[in-house]
Amino acid sequence: MITRRGLLKSAAATSFTAAASGLALPAYAQNRTIKIGFVTPQTGPLAIFAEPDQFVIDQFRAQFAEGVDIGGTRHNIEIIVKDSQSNSNRASSAAQELILEDGVDIITATATPDTTNPVADQAELNGVPCITNDTPWQPHFFGRQGDPAVGFEYTYHFFWGLEDIIQVFMSLWDGVETNKVVGALWPNDPDGNGWSHPELGFPPVMGQAGYKLIDPGRYQNMTDDFSAQISAFKEAGVEIVSGVMIPPDFTTFWTQAAQQGFNPKVVNVAKASEFPQAMAALGPRCDGLSVEVWWHKYFPYMSSVTGQSCEALSDAYEAATGKPWTMPLGAKHSLFEVVIDALKRTEDIDSPEAISAAIRQTNMNTVFGPVNFQTGPVPNISKTPLAGGQWQLQGDKPVLEIVTNGHSPEIATTGAIKPIA
Amino acid sequence: MVWINAVLQGVLLGGLYALFAAGLSLMFGVMRFVNIAHGDFIVVGAYLILTFVISWGLNPIIGVALVLILMAAAGYLNQRFVLNRVLGKDILPPILVTFGLSIIVQNGLLELFSADSRKLPTGTWETSSLALTDQIAVGLLPFLMFLTAVGVIAAMQFVFYRSALGRMLRATSDDPEIVPLMGGNNARIFAIATALASLVVGIAGIWLAMKTNFDPAAGPARLLFAFEAVIIGGLGNIWGTLLGGIILGVAQTVGAQIDAGYQILAGHLVFLLLLVLRPKGLLPKVSH
Q: Does residue A198 lie in a domain region?
């Protein structure tokens, strides 16, 4: 006799068997949507890094609208974007949401340790493959207590490191005739403390190369006055100023330097001088400032996905958004290149271990330069090219010229370095 | 010589802090109204002047006038239709509402102006200075900023303690229950006070735009020093705010002269020390 209760019981049993048999099906036969999570600082003080996000994501969505072939099966690709609000706690919970609620297959993040570190930590903890870039590799790897002997199981990162920027900055100093006295502007933050480190930072290398260091100490970010530093630099006859400053601090320093009659010949300040928008805000005072260049319109690399050269990618970006190209454009584009490349080589798309193994085997050329996680300084890290650049006014528009290429000789220079007028 | 220079630059820096704090001093010190969005309103002023002068190409004088009128009008309407509803014995609701406003303003600016760091270029103004000796020079822009701060504070003092409007404002702040009995309209008086404070916020915004880069998230960093300047000087004492700003500025530049790492710390230490020695601030509250 069929009772309501009996019917429900048997229905539950049948559906359970169906579900179980579904689990038993071989994974490669499944055609499903692959979810890629992306955590990025769309709002807050780091938002300038996220400006190219929408363009890059639209580009990849269009490119893979028909899905991607993995092991002979076509899978749809879905990119889910979460805003970190430039806050490391928010980045961490955004990564958790992506992993636990959206069930992403692979997670990505870019732009400074505040974004890449918490996201990678969550990924490692939850066993989700993760690819990040746009944070110097030491703050990322050692900032997460990475052990060079072991590395990480699921998280991979590609960018340059402290040793690279030291080499590039010194190549910029060597380019101009000076008295070799360097004034340092290193703030009290992870970057400033890393750069000023007495063993791993600038000081020992500078000593060897015959540069004299004037270091007035670690100042706090968002300082409204740099007269103490300027007095110290003037007294010591500093001709080179170097540091890693946020844009408002650098503008305060540089304006005050002019008011106080301090005119160094070389000024290279990472962070503040990386973005054309910040340079444009300085007006003619940006002419001659130099900086490290981690991606440029005239880098000799090509996208593995769209086949665009750096120049073609920059032009497409400027045409689509009406904004000048910035360095993070190449970083974001390459991030998804590495993701797609790894997914295509994955043997079992339903196994995070298999995806992680495929990322580990990455050996490819991206629009950001070669990426290979086997040859890095420590496991799970791949180093990317770096050049020395200088902002030179053309008309009233600041243009970033590549002026030294000792670090990555395959990059051609586009101009010659000149002292600040 | 470097010490004299440090003190001099500190005094000029104090002008900046006093300017940022002046609007807050009026609201916080006299009306007991804590505006967490104060720094964000300053940034709004900075974006307004940038839009008028750079994007629209208006004459700077017209641009400044427009900013001040718009800020004052926005302050009036904001107080009349939003903030008045949460005013009361409990100081928590206004804090929460202005905290929410702060987030709305930051994200609104981000939508409108993007995250780009902007600055109002002032050409040769910003690099000109008067060299007093080899080691001491006074920048034109910081000097004008200091004079503006003194002017703004003097004007506020006059309005508050020498005019009929000021009398109503003080009366409302002292006893909001009695003022309506005498025919005053609390809602309107508070709105006028906020309009005045917003006018000063507009002036601070214009100077911020000329001084350094700003972006939609630049506001909150301005709030802390403003609060400290108000408290060091004494709540409700408008000249005290200028003194508080100068003490904070000098403490910072002299601290930096010892070690750059002590710059911000020295300011906070002086603030704490004064809080211990004179909890009510340096200058006593002027009796109403």
A: yes
- Do A311 and A279 lie in a common domain? no
Looking at the structure, do residues A38 and A132 belong to the same domain, yes or no? yes
ipTM of the complex: 0.79
- A184, A258: one domain: yes
What's chain A look like in SS3? CCCHHHHHHHHHHHHHHHHHHHHHCCHHHCCCEEEEEEEECCCCCCHHHHCCHHHHHHHHHHHCCCCEEECCEEEEEEEEEEECCCCHHHHHHHHHHHHHHCCCCEEEEECCHHHHHHHHHHHHHHCCCEEEECCCHHHHHCCCCCCCCCCCCCEEEECCCHHHHHHHHHHHHHCCCCCCEEEEECECCHHHHHHCCCCCCHHHHHHHCCCEEECCCCECCCCCCCHHHHHHHHHHCCCEEEEEECHHHHHHHHHHHHHCCCCCCEEEEEECCCCHHHHHHHHHHHCCCEEEECCCCCCCCECCCCCCEHHHHHHHHHHHHCCCCCHHHHHHHHHHHHHHHHHHHCCCCCCHHHHHHHHHCCEEEECCEEEECCCCCCCCEECCCCEEEEEEEECCEEEEEEEECCCCCCCCCCCCCCCCC
Residues A391 and A258 in one domain: yes
Least Cα separation, residue A368 to chain B (angstroms): 23
Contact A256, B139 (CB under 8 A): yes
Give the domain extent around A230: 163-293+386-404
Q: What angle do CA A27, A120, A381 make, to 5 degrees?
A: 95
Q: Which of A80, A52, A136, A17 is nearest to A339 (CA)?
A: A80
Is A410 part of any domain? Answer: no
Q: How far apart are CA A404 and CA A171, in angstroms?
A: 7
Q: Is the dihedral of CA A372, A375, A380, A385 positive or negative?
A: negative
Q: Is B1 helix (H, G, I), strand (E, B) or coil?
A: coil
Is residue A2 situated within a structural domain? Answer: no
Chain B contact set for A262 (CB, 8 A): none
Asked whether residue A155 falls in the same domain as residue A108, the answer is yes
- Pick from A48, A196, A231 the residue to mutate for testing the B interface (most B CBs within 10 Å): A231
CATH, residue A69: 3.40.50.2300
- The CATH number given to B2-277 is 1.10.3470
Find the angle CA(B24)-CA(B204)-CA(B15) to the nearest 5 degrees: 85
Do A70 and A150 sit in the same domain of this protein?
Answer: yes
Which chain A residues touch B225 with a CB distance below 8 Å?
Answer: 224
| pLDDT tens for each residue of chain A, 421 residues long | 556 666 555 555 555 444 444 444 444 446 788 889 999 988 777 778 888 999 999 998 888 888 888 877 888 888 899 888 778 888 899 999 999 888 889 999 998 888 888 999 999 889 899 999 988 888 888 888 888 888 888 999 999 988 888 889 888 888 888 888 999 999 887 778 888 888 878 888 888 888 888 888 888 888 888 988 898 898 888 999 999 888 888 888 998 888 888 889 889 898 888 888 888 878 788 888 999 999 999 999 999 888 899 999 999 999 998 888 999 999 999 999 999 999 888 888 888 888 898 898 889 899 998 999 888 888 889 999 989 999 988 887 888 999 988 888 888 888 888 888 7
Query: How many domains are contained in chain A?
Result: 2
What are the residue boundaries of the structural domains of chain B, listed by start?
A: 2-277
Q: Is A415 part of any domain?
A: no
From the list A48, A220, A251, which residue is nearest B212 (CB)?
A251
Q: Note whether A255 contacts B263, CB cutoff 8 Å.
A: no
Q: What is d(CA B200, CA B42) in angstroms, rounded to the nearest whole number?
A: 9
Chain A hits for B129, CB-CB cut-off 8 Å, are 258-261
Task: Tell me, yes or no, whether A289 and A317 share the same domain.
Answer: no
If asked whether residues A318 and A372 sit together in one domain, one would say yes
